[in-house]
Amino acid sequence: MSRTRLSTYTAPPAEVARTLDALRAHYEVPTDFPPEALAEAESAASAWAQDGPARLLADGARDARDLELVTIDPPGSMDLDQAVLLERLPTHADHADQAGAAAGEVGNAPEPAATYRVHYAIASLATFVTPGGALDAELRRRGETIYAPDAATPLHPEVLSHGAASLLEDAERPACLWTIDLDERGEVVSARVERALVRSRARLTYAQVQAAIDGQGALSQEAPADLPELLAEIGRLRLEREAACGGISMTTPEQVVEVTEAAEATEAAQATEPASPTEDAGDTDPTESAGPAGYRLAYRVPVPAEQYNAQISLLTGMCAARIMVDSGVGILRTLPPARPEDYARLRRVAAALGIDWPAAQPYPELVRSLDHAVPAHAAFMEQAMSLFRGSGYLAFGVGGVGVPAEDEASDAEEAVHSAIAARYAHVTAPLRRLVDRYGEEVCIAACAQAPVPQWVLQALPDLPDVMEQTGKRARAIGRGALTALEALVLRGHEGEVFDGVITSERDGRGELVLVEPAVVTEIRAGKNASDGGLPVGERVRVRLLSVDPATGIRFQLLRNRS
């Protein structure tokens, strides 16, 4: 959560905490870990600290501490799932040596020589969680980490997620180590994963890496000097491959919650409401504050480094899906294709917004040509994000569910993630998402030509339902938290006029996106027929009529009025 500039649209922390606590209670979000589960986590962490690395290597894991892996995450992150090292392979290297002969590699026929090698270390949670134990049961109850502006409800106890299992800098950690070779076009030549002992060299942020890509800064000496160049190079190649397959990666502004510094909040309050001469200055001393002074909403566009890093994760998930399908058992992340009527609706939206969409132009190509800074384009992209719906998980090879076929008809149904335009599996965030631990273990077993562990096979049939239910809860908390923050930052500003854009309309109700503060809410068309419909895709001015965290926010569209 980033620190922000001065703003009068700030929600007080005490009210935020009360509102979010009520939200968590309503959805029965787990709080403390049961004593038995916490004891198991602490015992596993202690065992790793005592002699874990030696035991891991004795069990046949690869010693990969020589790899110059680094993590790339938001500032302050402690639950570090992934560490990466990128290499440009010598052009004269023998392809057989590059690809290796490990079972489970993607593709069996001779392939072009590899140009790049991606080393991707993923936290090995199977090293710490005892199947069938109290911690295992609690993880199934939680499903995933739930993020809220004031606090995260972690999937794993912090002794693991912020400690023994996290790929922290300069710490020896167990990992599921992927080795993926790519050709000069960014196509996969080979992929495999194995248990390994790793040590991350540096903890980097997206901003640091982006600055290095832009030539405006250097990374720490511990990080490979060519990391920024290779990340951008491989990331762009993978984006090109995604586009060629019909996949879509939209870089649109996202609503984020930022923390206001204590000194900034005091200054903002003094600028709008002078303090009383008798006010005790000690009550507002920023040095006395133990927590945030407030929260505000902002829009943030991911920097290219985030896109490139995401492509490494997507690449790994696609390789994992292929390995699982080839081995005959696993679990895929799926998203059904958009329906023809949804595309027809989106074409009507484009026409209404004045966006030229030739009949022969593929939808992904159109999306990549848009500029989110143009109001009409932003409105279209907001609608485009709802084109694909119904994501889920497909467990196969167990419980009577067959292996997805390779034919086109199967791909059009349940086995493909349509936004990626490929088969895909969640395997890169096991600290924050339950299903990833199981996917990793399937792939490790397949690459080692070993049986999939029985505890994995037993859990797979129920995992789609577990992830669906826990995912619904996490999404409800995320939506509810933003809705509450929107009301709290606007309270006290009734009667004021704001600039915004209306991004959609249906049955007289539209979506209103304010410029400042970063609020996305509903607005209704006027009751009089003479008022006309809502001007979708146009900049508008609106007046705030009322705010209530319980009942919502009401705005009035100003037509040719100030």
TrEMBL record:
Region Disordered, annotated ranges: 262-293
The keyword DNA-binding is assigned to this record: yes
GO biological process: mRNA catabolic process
One cellular component (GO) term of this entry: P-body
Keywords: DNA-binding
Segments forming domain RNB: 61-449
Spans through the membrane: none
One MF annotation (Gene Ontology) recorded for this entry: 3'-5'-RNA exonuclease activity
Pfam families linked to this entry: RNase_II_C_S1 (PF18614), RNB (PF00773)
Classification via SUPFAM superfamilies: Nucleic acid-binding proteins
InterPro entries: NA-bd_OB-fold, RNase_II/R, RNase_II_C_S1, RNR_Ribonuclease
Keyword DNA-binding belongs to the record: yes
Residue spans of biased composition, Low complexity class: 262-279
Protein's name in the database: DNA-binding protein
Native organism: Actinomyces oris
